[in-house]
Structures are given as structure tokens and as C-alpha cells.
Automatic annotation (TrEMBL), chain A:
Coiled coil: none annotated. It comes from the Bacteria. Pfam families: CarbopepD_reg_2, Plug. Residues 139-218 form the TonB-dependent receptor plug domain. Gene3D superfamilies: Carboxypeptidase-like, regulatory domain. This is TonB-dependent receptor plug domain-containing protein.
Automatic annotation (TrEMBL), chain B:
This is Tetratricopeptide repeat-containing protein. Keywords: Signal. The lineage of its organism: Bacteria, Pseudomonadati, Bacteroidota, Cytophagia, Cytophagales. Residues 1-19 form the signal peptide. The keyword Signal applies. It comes from Arcicella rosea.
């Protein structure tokens, strides 16, 4: 028993030493400004010992661990901090200073000149869904972009986007980094045509209206970058029918790959029946469109895509022929267009520090045009390859190296009744190398510096274009950025049929941007200055003769002596807060531009530039019945037009253009399958807009260039049939 | 006798000073789970999340502490109002999902359920923009959970919840959710957790929802 007592004492002594040999760890967890961080977790690595910081950021715990230990402090939204300790005394005090993780509020983003549309980034200003829910946008990606962002305008009688005083040729569209040679349907005289893309073909896009990245080139003004969708989420059938189109598609999804195909037939007859046309159509536009895509995700860090789109179309109309003294002439187009693109992306190491992004594409476009008895055949082919290697660093910085190569072939055959058959052929071999780095000096200051070198066999020379962008965070919600650089473009290939000595056209950009994003409201203002050099000038045989025909074939003398400038201010405001389930967008741009280029006689404001552009868009989501309603008002101030009776060149202005459009969609289901019914009216008020004037050769009579119809109705439906219900994005709104 | 006593004392001493790892783990988990059950405000939930995280960092071969740490953060996210706060806590919840991906997990179906829960909450931040991405992530996780373990009641419960809050014209609403609620209730009735510290939650919410089916 004695022994037992002895042992018992020994035991308690043993326990006691354990108790008394504990160390009391106390301390405080603070943020960078010295404020306590309640809730922070403090733990001794490898043990359960630890504590949670109290309301003042203080903590306290006992531990029986001994010797060298690591004390870890973690907290939501902050970087983890470790401290090495030696536990050999009764108490120890530790102070942690935690650094906030990079997030949208504390980190600047390089944004000057760019508007992004994606679902992935939270700061995005435009969502892909906006493309199909914006009144007046006609579910066309380029048209909608020009409405939603300032700085770009569309002109009723010409195809393409006109960005900050630049011509339509100065804006390029790229799919997954690959240049799209024929982004728009071939236009009829004085009728703007739509882009060839389907709105749901892309998961996101970025529209850069100036100072864009060194990754892209051959665009003096702007690039619209679009990214194709990844692996679809399910196997489904889709059916789409509206006044202009019927289409059907099928998507088959297997474990890591998918195959889909769509067949569409367009015929504008029903649409033209609904509302009177200003144009006398002799062959109502008709198009067959077939597309197929394949997606493969062989592993989590790799991605392979193939897309093929083929379109065949035909249309014919009577147009006011300026070359035939304003008489009506027959005009016809037959178009064949094929676009094949493929991209492959793969992380080269486990942590995806190095990523390879590559792509290749082939496009073929054939236009068979006829004017009365004259016939023209235009072919354009382009093969291209692109590879970019990106290395990412821990602090969001990265550096990339890339190359691209193109072979473009152009052909033109003229068969005119009054002359012999003429054939023209051109080939452009184009290569580019580029490198760019985006870096964070601090979280408040970031920059992007890049350089791009190009060689075009047509321009038969090299060019070297530096680009830069800097952004500084001025407050919790605001930032200021600047961007600039040099931009080169090989002149319109048509000029090379007669002059092989033409060099690059050049533009220098300077952009200053201020952005404030707070409480679901965004305000952005951007000022820019753009200087043009070496623009192509055409000289007419007769001095002071100006041919106002935009379709003229440039067969006269040309050189690179043109120049110009463009300056202005773009304002963007979006309010997602003031109206319940509503969104308001207002954007305004002021542009002052002059140039001496093409066949212009003096340096003057170009015919495609209007000084003031305003778009006001409002969208309202309604829960019951589930609808989205939107309205757009857009205003474009008058543009210069050529009046041969005015001794001052391009001094006259067209009337202002007003357009009010509405759009409505109703979401419902048929036996559990998602269905959208949409209805839109473009130019609700039926305003008799005039886009331009054309004069007879003697200048005595003129005709108005008007829209194809003063008012356009569209009604249609879109149905998705799938095993598992596809719920529309809107349904989760509340 | 002497030896026996000595042995007892030594064993006793060993037990009290350092209980077997397994017991110590079960005890700590059990206590923290009780605390989770009683948690009411952010402070108490944060305390629980921290405890799970501490256990997880010490017991690197156990998946349950990471699982519960993630679950607790998803519960904290549920109490947040602003989208950026919800995302902040869900990011933290996701960090434990990443740790779970590196571990050997005996009940992968429960991880899928957790992923579905996080996806559902991501949607709640900006449904209009996020439905496409996280809606399919939700469906995929539920399908995977059900295929691994068709008897997991939480997979049915979450699916029922998703339908419940979907508008009627899209096949949602209380009425359309009832068959799935019924299934979830049946699965819960037959469900027996492997041990007291294994996942065993979700029954109350589904019972609450089931009231709408009567």
C-alpha cells in the first residue's frame, strides 16, 4: 500500500509537471493598418492547440508542446502567416500582422481602353447575355457592342464598326486570338450587313477601343476579341425559328468531349412582308449556314477545339448607281464562306506556371458580284497559325512570348461589257513576333509593357510597335490608367493591285482613363488622342475630282502620304442599383477627327465620323411572368457628306440619326424544356433617318441613302430540348 | 501486485497525459461538432471553423476535419448578405475542398454533396450570370454523389432544395420538388452514420420543406 501511495504521488507529480510545464501563448492579430482581426485562427502546427482571436484581435492559449515550434495564423481574406517559436518559458507573446489577399477592392486592374464581357470575372462590365437582351442590338455581337460601349459607332449605310474616328477596316475581329478575315456578310450597296457570328458561340469577349495589347496587330483602331465556348454542359437539341430564320442543332456530350452541329436556313421574305422596304429587292436575301464543332478536354489542364462554319448566300436588289447618273441598276451577290478554326491549350507543368495557347485557322471567301451585265469575282483565302507561351508568377504578374504567321491570297476577276476580262492576284506572307509582360509593382500600381514586330510581304518591310499601359489605384473604388503605343496595318489589299510599293499605315494612341466602381454603379471616362501617319492617298486623274462611290475600284495613282488625327472623350455609366431588377446604361462619346486619306481632297472630317454619339439602354427583369424588357435610344449627330455644289470639300452634314428600339423576351417551358419567345421593334417611332446623299454627275439631283426599312419587327422563338432541364440564366435572378 | 499497480499507474498516466491519437481525435471532433450544433452567430461559427482547421492541420490523414471546416465556412457564407462576402467565405470553403482532393477519402459522395452546396451558394450571388457555370457544376456534383452512393440522403435533399427555389414555369416550386423531397425523406429514414462524427445533417431542413407538400 505504501508503494501504491508512493506511486500515486509520483503520478500526480507527473501530471503536475505536465500542467506546470505548459506555456501560455498570448498575442494579437492585426491587419496592415494595426486594426485587430477578430476571428483569426492561431494554431500550433502539428497540434490541436490554438485559439481564435477575440473582438479586439487578442488571443491566448496554453500548450504543453516544447521546443521549436511553428505558430500559424490564418484568416479568411488574408495571407497565412507563420512564426517560429521556441517554447521553453512559462509565457510568450506573439504579434501577427496579416496582409490582405489580392482582391478586386485592393488590387488595380489594367483596363485602359478595354471593355470585357465574361461571366468569369466579377468586375466585368458586360455579360454575354447582354448581347441577346439589348434592344436595337439585333442579337448581333458587333452591333450590340457598339451600343453598350462608348467610342464606337455604326453607320447605317456601311458595314463594320467605326471606332474613335477610325474607318471600318481599322477594327479587327479575332476568335481565340485568330484574325477573322470576313467577319461580316458581304454587303449590298448602302446596306450595313450583320456579323457572321451566332450570339451563343462565345463565352466572352473583350472590346479594346484603343491602346490594346501587343498580342494583336494589323488594326489601327480597335480589336474585338472573342473566345469560343468550352465543353457544353449536356446533350441537347435546339430549335430556333423567327421571321428570318429556321435552324436546328444537336449537341452530343460524352465524358470529356462533345460534338455539335447546327443547320440554319435564312430567308428574309416573311420579315420583308411585315414592314414595307425602302429597297426594291429582286432576290430576297437567302442563306444556308452549316456549322460543326468538336470539343475535347483530355485532362484538366488541356483543351482542344475545332470549329467549322460554312455559309452560302444570295441576294439581289436595284440600287441607285452613282456611276450611271443615279439610275437604278441591278445588283446581285452570291457568297460562299468557309471558316475553320482550331485551338489547343495546355499547361506545361503541374502548377500551370507555363501555359501554351496555340491555334490555326483557314478561311475562304468567294463573292460573285454582278452590276447589270458586269460580273466580278472576288476571292480571299487566309491560312494562319498562332502560338503563345505564357509564364505566370505568384503575384498575378506574367510574361508571354508569341508568334503568328499568315498566308493570305486575294484574287479579283472583272468581266465588264465594255472591256476585256481582267484578273488580279496577290499573296501576302505575314509574320509577327511579340512579347508582353503584365506586372504588379504593388497592388496599387500595375503595368503592361509589350513589343510587337511584324513583316508583311505586301508592305515588304518590317515594323516594330511598342505598347504600354499603366494603372494606379487612387482609392478603394477608383483607379486611373494610361495606355499607348504604336499600331501598324498593311493597307487595304486592293491598293496593291496597282501599287506594290505601299508601306504600312500607322497610328499612335494615347489613352487616359478614370474608373469608379462602387455599389453596383460604374462610371468610366476616357480621353484619347490618336495620330495617323502614312495613310494611303489616291489621286484622281483630274485634279479636284472626288468620286463619292464607296465601291469604287482604286486603279489610280496612290502613295503613303496621308495623315490625320482623332481625339475625344468617351463616357460610360452603368447603374445596376437604382432600379430594382433593372439596369441602366448610358454612354456618350465626343469625337473630333480629321484626315487626309483615300481620295480625299483635303484634310477634313471623314464621312464615317459623327461628333456626338449617345446611347441610353434600360433593361428590366420581371419575375412573373418571367420576362426581360429592354429599350434603347441612340443618337448619332450628322456626318459629313459630299456635295459637289459646295466649294468646301465635305462641308455639309447629314441630319442627326435617332433610333428608339424595344426588345422583349418571355421565358417559359414546353414539357419541361426551356423556351424563349422574343419580340423586337427597331426604330419604334419610324423616324425617317437619312444616312447619306448621293449626287448625280452634274450635281443637279440627289437621292437619299435611307435604311432598308424605317421600322423593323422581329418575332421568334428558341427551344432547347434536353433530358435534364436547361434553366435560363434569368431564372436564378432572385 | 506491485508490478500490476505500477502498470496501472503507468497506463493511467499515459492515458491522461496523451490519450490514444484516435480517441483524442474523436473527442476533439465530437466536441467541436456539438459546438457547431449550438453555434448561433458569426463569432461562434468562426470559432468552430477554426477548431476544425486546427484539427485538420494536425491530422493530415483524416478527411473529416477538412470536410467540416469546409461545411462550416459554407454555413458562414449562408449568413452573409453581400455577394463579395459570400464569395470570400466560399473561396475559403473551396480551399478545404482542394485539400480533400489530395487526401484519401472514404466517403467521396459526401465531398460531392459539399461541392453541390457550394455551387448552389455561388449561384445565389449572381444567378443571372452564374447559372450557366455553377448550375452545371451543381448538377454534375449531385449526379456523381448519387452514382457513388445512391443512398446518400443529402444528395437528394440538396437537389430537392434546388428545385424548391426554382420558379414553377421551369418545373420548379414546392409541388415539383415534392417527389425529390419524398425520396430524400426515405433515404434519411434509412440512413445511419458510420460513426457519430461522420456526416449526418440536412434532415431538419428537408422536413421543413416537406410541410409544403401536404
Amino acid at each position: 500500500m505504501k508503494t501504491f501511495t508512493y506511486l500515486l504521488i509520483l503520478y500526480f507529480l507527473f501530471i503536475a509537471t505536465q500542467v506546470f510545464s505548459q506555456t501560455l501563448v498570448t498575442g494579437k492579430v492585426l491587419d496592415e493598418k494595426g486594426k485587430g482581426l477578430p476571428g483569426a485562427n492561431i494554431s500550433l502546427k502539428g497540434s490541436y492547440d490554438g485559439a481564435t482571436a477575440d473582438a479586439e484581435g487578442n488571443f491566448k492559449f496554453n500548450t504543453s508542446e516544447k521546443g521549436e515550434q511553428v505558430l500559424v495564423c490564418t484568416f479568411v481574406g488574408f495571407e497565412t502567416s507563420n512564426k517560429n517559436l521556441v517554447l521553453n518559458q512559462a509565457s510568450i507573446e506573439v504579434v501577427f500582422k496579416l496582409v490582405e489577399m489580392a482582391n478586386e477592392l485592393n488590387t488595380v486592374t489594367v483596363t485602359a481602353g478595354t471593355f470585357e464581357a465574361s461571366d468569369e470575372k466579377k468586375t466585368t462590365l458586360i455579360k454575354p447575355l447582354d448581347i441577346v437582351t439589348t434592344a436595337g442590338g439585333g442579337a448581333d455581337i458587333t452591333q450590340t457592342m457598339t451600343l453598350l460601349t462608348p467610342g464606337s459607332q455604326r453607320n447605317g449605310e456601311s458595314t463594320g464598326m467605326f471606332v474613335r474616328g477610325g474607318s471600318a477596316q481599322e477594327s479587327k475581329i479575332l476568335i481565340d486570338g485568330l484574325t477573322v478575315q470576313n467577319a461580316y456578310n458581304t454587303a449590298s450597296p448602302d446596306v450595313a450587313s450583320r456579323s457572321r457570328f451566332a450570339p451563343f458561340q462565345f463565352k466572352g469577349s473583350a472590346f479594346s477601343t484603343g491602346g490594346y495589347s501587343a498580342q494583336y496587330g494589323q488594326a489601327l483602331s480597335a480589336v474585338l476579341l472573342m473566345n469560343t465556348t468550352d465543353l457544353p454542359t449536356e446533350t441537347s437539341y435546339t430549335v430556333n425559328a423567327n421571321l428570318a430564320q429556321v435552324s436546328a442543332g444537336y449537341t452530343h456530350l460524352a465524358e470529356n468531349h462533345s460534338l455539335s452541329g447546327t443547320l440554319a436556313y435564312n430567308n428574309l421574305t416573311p420579315l420583308f412582308k411585315v414592314y414595307p422596304q425602302n429597297i426594291d429587292w429582286i432576290k430576297i436575301p437567302e442563306q444556308i449556314n452549316a456549322s460543326a464543332s468538336y470539343r475535347l478536354k483530355p485532362s484538366a489542364d488541356a483543351n482542344f477545339k475545332i470549329d467549322a462554319v460554312y455559309a452560302k448566300s444570295e441576294s439581289g436588289m436595284m440600287f441607285t448607281n452613282t456611276e450611271q447618273n443615279l439610275s437604278l441598276s441591278k445588283f446581285g451577290i452570291k457568297n460562299n464562306n468557309l471558316l475553320l478554326t482550331s485551338t489547343y491549350q495546355k499547361a506545361l507543368d503541374k502548377n500551370a506556371e507555363w501555359v501554351l495557347k496555340s491555334g490555326a485557322s483557314y478561311s475562304y471567301n468567294q463573292d460573285l458580284l454582278s452590276v447589270n451585265t458586269d460580273a466580278f469575282e472576288k476571292t480571299e483565302q487566309r491560312s494562319q497559325f498562332r502560338a503563345v507561351l505564357v509564364k505566370s508568377f505568384d503575384n498575378n504578374s506574367n510574361i508571354l512570348f508569341g508568334t503568328e504567321g499568315h498566308v493570305a491570297q486575294y484574287g479579283l476577276t472583272l468581266e465588264q461589257s465594255n472591256s476585256d476580262k481582267k484578273t488580279y492576284q496577290l499573296t501576302d506572307n505575314f509574320q509577327a513576333l511579340f512579347s508582353e509582360s503584365e506586372f504588379y509593382v504593388t497592388r496599387k500600381l500595375a503595368g503592361r509593357i509589350g513589343i510587337r514586330a511584324e513583316h508583311s510581304s505586301l508592305a515588304s518591310s518590317f515594323n516594330l510597335a511598342p505598347r504600354f499601359s499603366l494603372a494606379y489605384k487612387t482609392g478603394l473604388y477608383s483607379q486611373v490608367s494610361v495606355a499607348g503605343g504604336s499600331f501598324y496595318q498593311t493597307p487595304d489589299y486592293q491598293y496593291y493591285y496597282y501599287n506594290k510599293t505601299l508601306g504600312y499605315e500607322k497610328a499612335n494612341h494615347a489613352v487616359l482613363n478614370y474608373q469608379l466602381i462602387k455599389d453596383n454603379r460604374t462610371f468610366r471616362v476616357e480621353a484619347y488622342y490618336k495620330k495617323y501617319e502614312n495613310l494611303v492617298r489616291e489621286y484622281a486623274e483630274q485634279e479636284n475630282y472626288f468620286d463619292a462611290n464607296p465601291q469604287r475600284f482604286p486603279n489610280g495613282r496612290t502613295d503613303n502620304s496621308g495623315k490625320g488625327f482623332s481625339q475625344g472623350i468617351d463616357v460610360f455609366f452603368r447603374d445596376n442599383k437604382s432600379f430594382k431588377n433593372g439596369q441602366l446604361w448610358v454612354n456618350y462619346s465626343y469625337c473630333d477627327a480629321k484626315r487626309l486619306s483615300g481620295n480625299y481632297l483635303t484634310e477634313t472630317q471623314p464621312t464615317f465620323v459623327s461628333n456626338h454619339n449617345l446611347n441610353v439602354i434600360y433593361k428590366q427583369y420581371i419575375a412573373k411572368p418571367m420576362m426581360t424588357v429592354s429599350g434603347t435610344y441612340s443618337f448619332t449627330s450628322g456626318r459629313p457628306y459630299y456635295n459637289p455644289n459646295n466649294p468646301v470639300f465635305l462641308a455639309d452634314r447629314t441630319p442627326n440619326v435617332h433610333n428608339t428600339s424595344i426588345w422583349l423576351n418571355y421565358l417559359t417551358n414546353i414539357k419541361g424544356n426551356f423556351m424563349v419567345v422574343y419580340f423586337s421593334v427597331d426604330n419604334v417611332l419610324g423616324t425617317h433617318n437619312v444616312y447619306n446623299y448621293r449626287y448625280s454627275a452634274d450635281g443637279k439631283t440627289r437621292t437619299e441613302v435611307r435604311p432598308a426599312a424605317y421600322r423593323t419587327f422581329m418575332i421568334g422563338t428558341f427551344i432547347t430540348i434536353s433530358k435534364k432541364k436547361v434553366l435560363p440564366e434569368d431564372m436564378r435572378k432572385n | 501486485m506491485k508490478n500490476l499497480l505500477l502498470t496501472i499507474v503507468i497506463v493511467l498516466a499515459f492515458l491522461t497525459s496523451k490519450a490514444t491519437d484516435n480517441e483524442r481525435f474523436n473527442k476533439a471532433m465530437g466536441e467541436t461538432l456539438v459546438q457547431l450544433g449550438q453555434a448561433k452567430d458569426l463569432t461562434s461559427y468562426q470559432e468552430v471553423a477554426n477548431k476544425f482547421e486546427r484539427i485538420a492541420s494536425s491530422e493530415t490523414t483524416e478527411w473529416l476535419p477538412n470536410y467540416y471546416a469546409s461545411l462550416t465556412y459554407s454555413l458562414i457564407a449562408m449568413q452573409q448578405k453581400s455577394g463579395s462576402e459570400i464569395d470570400k467565405y466560399l473561396d475559403k470553403a473551396d480551399s478545404f475542398i482542394e485539400k480533400l482532393a489530395q487526401q484519401k477519402v472514404s466517403n467521396q459522395d459526401e465531398i460531392e454533396v459539399l461541392k453541390a452546396q457550394i455551387a448552389m451558394m455561388r449561384i445565389s450571388v449572381d444567378g443571372q450570370a452564374r447559372y450557366m457555370k455553377f448550375g452545371s457544376a451543381f448538377e454534375a456534383a449531385i449526379a456523381k454523389a448519387k452514382s457513388i452512393n445512391p443512398e446518400n440522403p443529402r444528395a437528394y435533399a440538396l437537389k430537392a432544395q434546388m428545385i424548391f427555389y426554382t420558379p414553377e414555369q421551369f418545373g420548379g416550386g414546392a409541388k415539383n420538388a415534392c417527389p425529390e423531397i419524398q425520396k430524400a425523406l426515405e433515404k434519411f429514414a434509412n440512413f445511419k452514420a458510420i460513426s457519430p462524427i461522420y456526416p449526418n445533417w440536412g434532415q431538419e431542413q428537408i422536413k421543413e420543406m416537406a410541410k409544403a407538400c401536404n
